[in-house]
Amino acid sequence: MDVEVASHFSMRSFAIGMIALLVMLVMLFTLPEYVGLELTITMMATLGVLLGMYVILITEVIHRTAIALF
Length: 70
Hints:
By secondary structure, this protein is mostly helical. The protein is built from 2 helices and no strands. It has a domain at 42-70. Keywords: Membrane, Transmembrane, Transmembrane helix. The chain crosses the membrane at residues 12-31, 37-57.
C-alpha cells in the first residue's frame, strides 16, 4: 500500500522538529529542579502542550511568510 505525500512535506524537517520538541520537553522536566522550582506533573504536562502549540504556530507563521514573500 503506497501512501502519497505532498511534495512540500519533508520527513527530515519533521524529524528535526520532533527532536527539537523532545529536547525542549526533557529540559522542561529536568531544569526546574536545578533552578529550585517545584512544579507538579500537571503543570509540566500543561507547559509541554503549550510548548508544542507554540512550535506549531511559529512554524505556521514562518510557512505563511515564506509563501507571501515568494
